[in-house]
Amino acid sequence: MANGKQPSRWMIWLGLADNSFTRQKTVKFGDASAVNSGRGYGIISVLAFIILWWVATASGWINPIYWPALDAVFDRVGKLANEGFRNVALWDHIWISVYRVLSGVVYGAVIGIPLGFAMGLWSVAKGFFDPIVEFIRPIPPLALIPLIILWFGIDEFAKIFLLALASLFIMIIAARAGVSSVRVSKVHAAYSLGATKLQVLIRVVLPNALPEIFTGLRTAMGVCWGTVVAAELVAADRGIGSMIMIAKNFLNTDIVVIGIVIIGLIGFAIEILMRMLERKLIPWRGKG
Amino acid sequence: MKALSIKDVSMVFTVPGGDPVRALDHVSLDLQPGELMSVLGPSGCGKTTLLNIVAGFLSPTAGRVVLQDPEPDGAASVVTGPGADRGMIADTDASVVKGPGAERGMVFQQGALFEWLTVEKNVAFGPKMAGKPSSDIKATVEHLLETVGLQDFAKKPVYQLSGGMQQRVALARCLANDPEVILMDEPLGALDALTREKMQGLVLRLWDETRKTIILITHSVEEALFLGERLIVMAPRPGRIEREYRLPFAKRGLNESPRDIKASPDFIEKREEILSMIWEMEEEIMGRAEGVGHG
Ligand SMILES: Nc1ncnc2c1ncn2[C@@H]1O[C@H](COP(=O)(O)OP(=O)(O)OP(=O)(O)O)[C@@H](O)[C@H]1O
Ligand SMILES: [Mg+2]
Questions:
Q1: pLDDT tens column, B120-130
Q2: What ipTM was assigned to the predicted interfaces of this complex?
Q3: Which of B10, B39, B58 is nearest to B235 (CA)?
Q4: In this structure, are residues B160 and B111 in contact, taking their beta carbons and an 8 Å threshold?
Q5: What is the average per-residue pLDDT within A15-31?
């Protein structure tokens, strides 16, 4: 409504009033881009959760064995940050998990991307690896943990091997999809401009596949983060997953909850970071 | 510039579970060096197929495409497989086109620019692949961007340009490679009427300056008449050359105003003649399709 009163900036920021973009739209139900963020309700839900937590535990309504009191959690976070958990600093628990994920993803990508490219470009690789990839793809990496423990025990190598395997197949599939998404006219154009096969690969196919590869990296990060926590739950003495598991054995529910929150926050941070990197590194995404 | 011969080319597409499609049926053509030929025809008559065969992206079922040096004892090459066309001697003095190659530049309808590169890097692509010294490349790119009026956009990513500007980049990229023959498949098809008219002027000017051999496919009768020194009209099922014209308008367009030419009686007369011919072909196709539908 052009002559309507302007809503206040606060109402717009809270997503409760139409902003300058959604105001132009008349069709709102069904057009996802026309739906206001409703950030205000988000704040309400977070506050409600915290208040519920506080009331339920402070009143003794919930046994702290099942869910810790809010103030106890804050105390414990301070203690964990200062003294660590089981002789290992909290940061080290977090870092070792992140480090495992990063190594797994890097190994998976280094092997998976060239393999995926080969599968998209060369019939021998396509035929040879296709059954293997299609067979392993639906197997959740967690199902491989027992086998990997049998093979490699529970040391560092076993964990990174599992994570590399988990990201390997994601990266193969992403790279292969990237190669097959190249528009033929671009390849034709490059050949017509005198490019050799190698030049077409490096100058056309590779940049064209980058958006897909990046999506693959993001997925691999997410999957590996979930997998590392699960692997640490099964067998580890360091890492955020093992911290939860050990704390559980001592009925330290507060540490369990803290660990869960940290896992969620880091998973979220990884996603945000990857999106920022993507916007920076592949600004042409979706513009071809 | 080299002469281009299309010798008795036929193309049959075999479709799994369907009748074979005779996209081209014994098509022969000779282009003199520096000739600008436009190609018209109803949808599906094999224009793109013909161009793809000349470009070396498709291998014809029969016949061949030959690039010939106009010098009395010059070499010629037949178009046949990737990269093999350069320096490949098939006949004593002709090279058969065997695959895509730098001597046949292509301007696509749209979407063939490299969106991860800037305007200038797109234009520099061909010379860079050929390993030209970077100072030469820089000079070429600057000159060409100026020619197509995009010198201020050199550093922009191509996806930030309008459709008309993108096609100018495509033209410049093609010219940067200094090809013998330029093949254009509806290069102006996606543009609005006004931009399109301006671009026609640009194509004509570039042709005049470079004297390249050019084949230009278009759906616009007016564009085909205005730009083609020669004009072939193709007919479908099987795809073949139906009529051929030699036209004065392209030469006149170099000096006269395009609007005057397009409004002149002889231009209008030709336009109506060709329009009604294509109209009849379309009618016939529709009639046949209807027959199938009701049969
Ligand atoms: N790869 C293919 N497989 C099977 N049939 C094809 C193939 N490519 C083209 N054809 C058929 O060949 C005929 C000619 O196609 P072509 O694309 O050359 O037509 P065109 O003249 O360029 O049409 P338009 O003006 O619509 O671009 C059509 O009947 C088309 O269906
Ligand atoms: Mg076509």
A1: 999 999 999 99
A2: 0.86
A3: B39
A4: no
A5: 86
Cα dihedral B141, B147, B148, B151, rounded to 10, equals 60
Residue A260 has a pLDDT of 92
Share of chain A above pLDDT 90, in %: 57
- Best residue among B11, B21, B54, B186 to mutate for probing ligand 1's pocket (most ligand atoms within 8 Å of CB) is B21
Structural domain boundaries in chain B: 3-103+221-294
Architecture of domain B3-103+221-294: 3-Layer(aba) Sandwich (3.40)
C-alpha distances in angstroms, B202 versus B126, B140, B178? Answer: 21, 18, 17
- HSE at residue B295, side-chain half, CA atoms within 13 A, is 6
Q: Whose CA is nearest to atom 30 of ligand 1?
A: B44
| pLDDT number for residue A255 | 92
Q: Is cis: bond before B238, omega within 30 of 0?
A: yes
Tokens of A125: 């690789």
pLDDT score, position B290: 59
Q: Which of A193, A199, A280 to mutate to probe the B interface, most B CBs <10 Å?
A: A193
Residues in chain B with pLDDT < 70? 1, 70-95, 288-295
- pLDDT per residue over A184-195, tens digit each? 889 999 999 999
Q: Please determine, for residue A1, whether its predicted confidence score (pLDDT) is greater than 90.
A: no
Contact of B207 with B36, CB cutoff 8 Å: yes
Alpha-carbon span A134 to A169, nearest angstrom: 9
Which tokens in the block code for residue A287?
């513009």
Smallest CA–CA distance, residue B144 to chain A, in Å, is 16
**Across-strand partners of B3?**
B68
Q: How far is the CA of B218 from the centre of ligand 2 (A)?
A: 9
CB B58 less than 6 A from any atom of ligand 1: no
What DSSP letter does each residue of chain B carry, written as one string?
--EEEEEEEEEEE--TTSPPEEEEEEEEEEE-TT-EEEEE--TTSSHHHHHHHHHTSS--SEEEEEEE-SSTT--EEEE-STTTTTT---BTTBEEE-S--TTEEEE-SSS-S-TTSBHHHHHHHHHHHTT--HHHHHHHHHHHHHHTT-GGGTTSBGGGS-HHHHHHHHHHHHHHT--SEEEEESTTTTS-HHHHHHHHHHHHHHHHHH--EEEEE-S-HHHHHHH-SEEEEEETTTTEEEEEEE-SHHHHHTTS-HHHHHHSHHHHHHHHHHHHHHHHHHHHHHHHHHHHHH-
Give the pLDDT of residue B85: 33
* A-B C-beta contacts closer than 8 Å: 78
Give the residue carrying structure tokens 């197509």.
Answer: B148
CA distance B150 to B144: 9
* CATH numeric code, A82-281: 1.10.3720.10
pTM given for the model: 0.83
Domain boundaries, chain A: 9-66, 82-281
